[in-house]
């Protein structure tokens, strides 16, 4: 299992467009991938799951993956959330 904590920097949090980007990226991997907020697990391959998180700027979340490509999955989603949709 691989995991890493991050802070949401995107001004509007993980609203519809960033959430869709996360789902699109997560779906490329075979591993089970979850975003964790306040102890609750949300499937990173589910737009409904991510939208139900209610993530806003400043929230701390954990990206966790389990499976054959878990390290790559976590690294890729961290890069996406911190660098490509955080602007």
What does this molecule look like?
By secondary structure, this protein is α+β, with helices and mostly antiparallel strands. The chain contains 3 helices and 4 strands. Strands 1-4-2-3 form a 4-stranded antiparallel β-sheet, covered by helices on one side.
Q: Please mark out the parts with pLDDT under 50 across 5 or more consecutive residues, or reply none.
A: none
- Oligomer kind: single chain
Radius of gyration: 11 Å
Annotation, overall tally of beta strands: 4
- Main beta sheet, described? 4 strands, antiparallel
- Please write the string of helix (H) and strand (E) elements: EHEEHEH
DSSP helix fraction: 25-40%
Give me the number of helical elements.
Answer: 3
Helix and strand content put the structural class at alpha+beta
* First-last Cα distance: 29 Å
Name the descriptors:
single chain, 87 residues, alpha+beta, 26% strand, globular
């Amino acid at each position: 299992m691989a995991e890493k904590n991050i802070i949401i920097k995107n001004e509007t949090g993980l609203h519809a467009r960033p959430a869709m980007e996360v789902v699109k990226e997560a779906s490329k991997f075979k591993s089970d991938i979850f975003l964790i907020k306040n102890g609750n697990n949300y499937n990173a391959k589910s737009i409904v799951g991510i939208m139900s998180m209610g993530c806003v700027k400043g929230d701390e979340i954990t990206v966790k993956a389990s499976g054959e490509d878990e390290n790559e999955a976590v690294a890729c989603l961290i890069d996406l959330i911190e660098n490509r949709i955080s602007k």
